[in-house]
Design a protein that fits this description.
Number of helices of chain A: 8
Largest sheet of chain B: none
Strand content of chain A: under 5%
Number of strands of chain A: 0
Radius of gyration of chain B: 18 Å
Number of helices of chain B: 10
Order of helices and strands of chain A: HHHHHHHH
Helix content of chain B: over 70%
Strand content of chain B: under 5%
Oligomer: heterodimer
Structural class of chain B: mainly alpha
Shape of chain B: elongated
Distance between the termini of chain B: 44 Å
Largest sheet of chain A: none
Chain lengths: 164, 181
């Protein structure tokens, strides 16, 4: 089957948006005149300063994984608790459309990326409708996740070079 | 324009770091800036995030192991920096038109209130309302027209999950923009 282009895909999902995209092609928001030239010339001064400020970081890579465990655990706990308590199961037709044909792993990814916008009962409904009964990927046993690992400042302290 | 291979050849020599990075800026700075700008909204915020992104890239480039393309790696840094910034700013805070237009010409401001400008403004409002990760997927696909496989490398999310996020986002935005007219 021929792979759809970005435009064809958008026309199928959101035709009005596809038209809007076509009309506004090449138009971008305004940027102060000469911004990119100025940025380039200032950049190396700042880069030099930042070299002087930087100090070696301790290994933190292992601790970072707690963030992902925490997110995954939150989803699992939420869905499982609602599931087992047999609470509200509402249909989520629109979400179901988006999930049609996805594997369980892909659904986890989708839910993880969009967790903020789902009501708890929707998550439970999705889980049931799609037979997402395998939550064995998350094994945290009785261990309590220290809030320290979820702290914004703590996460912000990571440097990309630590992750390379 | 110089290609990635040549940039990496330069990077093998410590003394050539600035020169190599200059080529990187020439090649990718506009693309990365616009990616960030669409994520964070105003030029002022985009400028801060863009600067942090490029400084981090500069500091890490010599350790970059080339498991992905340079552009993918830069996108990843830019995306993470943007998300961190948005979280700090507060998810519900929207960018006001006044703030966004600081330093811009009156002609440009006026354009926002024409019918065409209005549609784009509604589009932007709708994008701002998306959850962060859905927003980033939408921007990469809609504006940057990145293949899902590339987005997967940047965000570490499976292609199926990305497709679902994009479809969901596009439908929501379409509904929002249609409602305004």
């Amino acid at each position: 089957m021929k792979k759809k282009t970005v435009r064809e895909e958008l026309e199928d999902i959101a035709p009005f948006l596809a038209d809007l995209k076509e009309q506004s092609k090449g138009r971008r928001g305004p940027v102060p005149e000469g911004y990119f030239e100025e940025f380039r010339s200032e950049f190396f001064k700042k880069a030099e300063e930042s070299k002087e400020d930087s100090s070696p970081k301790e290994a933190k890579v292992v601790k970072l994984s707690w963030r992902y465990i925490a997110v995954a655990a939150s989803v699992a706990v939420l869905v499982l608790s609602l599931w087992f308590n047999n609470t509200l199961f509402v249909s989520a037709v629109e979400v179901q459309d988006s999930l049609t044909g996805l594997s369980i792993e892909e659904m986890y990814d989708y839910l993880d990326a969009n967790i903020e916008e789902f009501a708890a009962e929707e998550l439970a409904s999705i889980a049931i409708d799609n037979e997402m009964d395998d939550f064995g990927i998350i094994e945290i046993g009785d261990e309590i996740i220290d809030e320290e690992y979820l702290d914004e400042e703590y996460l912000d302290a990571f440097e990309y070079e630590d992750l390379l | 324009m110089i290609d990635e291979k040549e940039i990496f050849l330069l990077l093998e020599q410590d003394t050539m770091l600035d020169k190599a990075f200059g080529f990187i800026l020439d090649k990718y700075q506009e693309r990365l800036y616009w990616h960030i700008r669409r994520m964070v909204g105003s030029h002022e915020d985009a400028n801060d995030v863009f600067q942090n992104t490029m400084i981090k890239a500069y500091k890490g480039i010599q350790k970059f192991q080339r498991k992905s393309t340079l552009l993918t790696w830069l996108y990843r840094i830019a995306s993470n920096e943007s998300l961190t910034f948005i979280k700090k700013r507060g998810r519900k805070e929207t960018v006001s038109i006044d703030n966004e237009d600081l330093g811009l010409s009156n002609q440009v401001k006026a354009e926002r209130y024409t019918e065409e400008g209005l549609a784009e403004r509604y589009l932007k409002e709708a994008i701002d309302e998306l959850p962060e990760k859905q927003r980033i997927v939408f921007i990469m696909r809609y504006y940057d027209e990145m293949p899902y496989q590339e987005i997967e490398k940047v965000l570490g999310t499976s292609v199926g999950g990305l497709k679902a996020s994009y479809h969901h986002a596009a439908k929501k935005i379409e509904a929002y923009v249609r409602k305004q007219f």
